[in-house]
Amino acid sequence: MRKLSKWLAYAWALLRARRHAHALLAAGPVHRARRVLVICYGNIYRSPFVAAALRAAAGTPLEIRSAGFHTREGRAVEPGFVDIARNFGIDLSAHRSRLVRGDDLHWADLVLIMDGHNYRLMHHHYPEFLAKTLWLGAVSRKTPILIEDPYRRSPDRQRDIACQLDAACTAFLGQLKPKAAPV
Prior knowledge:
By secondary structure, the protein is α/β, with parallel strands linked by helices.
């Protein structure tokens, strides 16, 4: 029964992910967000890519951290994905993975996650922070809500995922810009 309850909570979260993202974006807390924590499972592909892309965006007034749920810290990004990221103007060569901690979540105004596994781990370990958690893929209708983990995927699939991450970052940054007042 407990597994069914967890699965139903996840399914419900997935169904309302875009609505939740757009409600958060429309309500304004995202516009006031200054500290963003980007989380994926291993912190060696998606979250460092997104963190670096957001940092590189000109005029972004954000402090950004990335972390993951994998307990082994200090892992480097796979060389093939480092090359893929370079094609997007992102240098991941110096990145080393780190474990997400409660302090990171308290620090963050907004938490970006990538997929259902991230959601389930947040739900299990840090449910009190789900209200400020957004599925990055839900920000844009041009990207899937679930942004797949590139780990052990072909280079072509990793490139496709990097394109999704880039598109989602662009959509997210577009949402941060203040809306022009009507004339």
